[in-house]
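Hey, does this match?
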Amino acid sequence: MGTPAIVGHQGWTPLQQACGQGKGESGKAAHLLLEAGAEFNACPGVGFAHTALQAACECPNPSVRVVNFLLDFEAHIQATSHSGEPTAVQAAVLAGNLEVLKVLIKRGAFQNNSPPGNTFSATAALQAVSAGPRERTVRNIERYIHTITLLLAHGADVNAPPAANTRYRALQRAAWQNQVEIYKKLLEAGADANGKQHPSTCKTAIQAGAKCGPMIDLLMAHGAKINAAPSIPGRTTLQHAAAMPGGNLSLMRKITGYGADVNQGPAPSWGRTALQEASHYGSYGVVVALAEEYNANINGPTAIGRGPLKALEACAFRGSISNLGHTSLHILEFLLEKGANITPNMLQFTAAKGKEDTVRVQLSYRAQIYIPPTPFEHEPIPWGNYRPLGRDMYNTARMNYQEGVTIVLRCWLHEPERPTVGSSQ
């Protein structure tokens, strides 16, 4: 079994550190430590500590000799770390270490290749490698394609549900990372363009790749459903595209050109319509196009969960907490011109944040200063960390020491200072 492990730098044993350095002097050190009886299956560290074999498989300059040496000592080929990090096989494929992967396969890594969700299967490795290389050089992409070919040859199921520690099907993972070349390879291998994961976390492939035009074209050519329902906390394809900071009008037009429903309802939890997403992310051009060209519902329904804001509220909220102030103000004016409803909670929030420009715009559209917002128990979702307290706009500004807003409101009303009323904090 070896000698007790000595925990070193960042919770790693000396053997783990040596194996993680790959070839050269560190490789020689790993040999010496193993021959001296070092514990080769130790995983004493917390966080991201690996076994020695995992460390050897994922290092940028791996030593096949060290990997073979560890396996000769009967290192656990299917071990996982305390934090559920990748297995040795997954570590090798994620690092693009094809030669190491071949050694692991030859030494029996895939003897137990079922059930489909098995963390140690070729399928789990395929789901891991489908994320593609971080550096998208031609050489790296070719290595990953060769790895996928090898895994498919050893029984990897391209349409299997995700393994316990991968979370995504192979196709969704490639789409999420915009790995078009890998995506083509998976489709050629028979991947289902409309496959889903668990309802609470799933995205279809086209939803995952919604921000990449070439990916959308490729998916639609393979029968993807552009209006697939969002997951419980998720977005449709168009809603994903609308949720890009600053917006991408050409991408939005591409998706609507494929028949996307502009007014498709939001996800049951945390969801927003496409117009609400564009308003929240300050996409003025997308907001105008959705409203004027595609008849988006200005006062469309919201969902339950974090941030169930209608388009006007989403715009005001984002403009109050980010550097999108001027853009959000333009969107605010446009939506009001199109008939968006001003809600009491929106009035209270903008008054509390001291947004004088936003308050002036709302007043110009006849906002009701003295109407208190919906009680919190009937409007269960806070705006960020701000919860409605039952005060009207004027008293909210007073209680939050927003002098500028208070003066704006008094001038608008042409009346002297009023005493503060309403609930106390």
Summary: Residues 138-153 form the longest helix (16 residues).
